[in-house]
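Can't paste images in this forum, so I'm doing it all in text. The chain is below; anyone willing to post the predicted structure tokens underneath?
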Amino acid sequence: MAHEVTVMGRDGCHLCEVAEAEVARICGELGVPWRAEDVDTDPEWRAEYGDRVPVILVDGAEHGYWRVEEDRLRKALG
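Text version of the structure:
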């Protein structure tokens, strides 16, 4: 099954930058596409994720927030 990872974050967020770098590395190793979205570009995203960024989504479902749990993410993508 093909997976996709999304990092919901915001500009100027250090934790978001760290999460994006970790997701880029992990997804790059596994050949899984990923993208970053800015929660401040959509009022619904801001309401849903704004207090918990970065939020990691796997296939559109919330997987975790604030930190990337590498082993758990690899398992979800494996």
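The domain at 5-77 is CATH 3.40.30.10 (Glutaredoxin). The first helix runs from residue 14 to 30.
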